[in-house]
Specification:
Helices cover 26% and strands 25% of the residues. It starts with 5 loop residues before the first strand and ends with a helix. With 454 residues, it is of the alpha/beta class.
Amino acid sequence: MAKTSFSCSACGASFSKWSGRCEGCGEWNTITEDKGLSAGGPAKKSLGAMRGKRLELSDLATQEAPPPRTLSGVGELDRVLGGGLVAASAILVGGDPGIGKSTLLLQAAARFARNGLKTIYISGEEASAQVRMRAQRLGLSSSPVLLGAETNLRDILTTLEAEKPELAIIDSIQTMWSDTVDSAPGSVSQVRAAAHELTTFAKTNGISIVMVGHVTKEGQIAGPRVVEHMVDTVLYFEGERGHQFRVLRAVKNRFGPADEIGVFEMTGRGLAEVTNPSALFLSDRGDPTPGSVVFAGIEGTRPVLVEMQALVAPSPHSQPRRAVVGWDSSRLAMILAVLEARCGVPFAGLDVYLNVAGGMKISEPAADLAVAAALLSAREDTALPKDTVIFGEISLSGALRPAPQAENRLKEAQKLGFSAAIAPSGGKSVTIPGLSLKKASDLVGFVGEYFAAG
């Protein structure tokens, strides 16, 4: 039988029996019997008649100070975090095995500790001696970082509660296990429970917690997707094994841009930040070659110039190959179809290879025109001028659409010595001293002007 409860309609005080006068506020005839919070459902699963605590509500016009942030001193990391580390935030960092997640976070922990944050690094994958060896190799042995090696979640939370750090790094969430969950570490249940407990602990105790997550073969963080919804920020650490570049990309951020990137270079002394990634990605360019086009892109809030490389060759097979690295293969198929249907440029019987130089991954539609130019340049064996950048979106009708932040793209190109740019007509006119801007209204006109086809 459900227990009856009473509450005062004036002050909200709860009582186990009815009385004429409220002992909390002194009002008369304000105590009424509470109705159940749940209209139906199983008695053991519903909320029943027990009342909860009344929330303090505010309107949308309430002014609140922005959350306090702490800068690490690593400009690329602070940029991706949205301007520094937010107190009492939960951050999830994912990446391929061996890509440098532990190196990045150990360097970040050392920088934050030197800037005054009490920092604890908990390793569940390596022994303390291994972490010390990495710190010695990176020149971080003198940093005031507290180190621990443990996988028991209850022991870790007890330690954090006693030490009261301002930043805790958990490496990794897949190795943590809770004694209340009957499954092996790394299972869906254990990962969900550990992420929930750590995130709740961060919010209630004012501690910033960074969790490392493994990734699947598809490149997504392993475990239930609900883990990404629990945390405030999700970062991916990307890079190709054959390249020294590493990209830290924000895919979710409640305190800053959700598409920001930071670029690092892997060296013998750890990860070094790259303040001008455009110059780095274009450092190996030589004389103009067919199939090579420079794309002026935007990643987050920063303009980034990368080289799009294409190779078109006769196919010895009945089914031509379409290989893409660093771009969307479905979008490549769309560009090839538009070139054939709208411009009369066939790619049947030809193998097509597309690569984004430097290990970058491009996702914005503004790369369409640069890809089309690279494909046509490779097919016609005609090199575009070396000092030209290209950007613009291609529609299925063959029309060209202007790309956002055109001025920032052109300024970055001019800063790196480019003197010409090709972009779709339309949008606001932009004038950059020392850089000539050529406009193209549709793909047919672009192909006819620069490749004598269409």
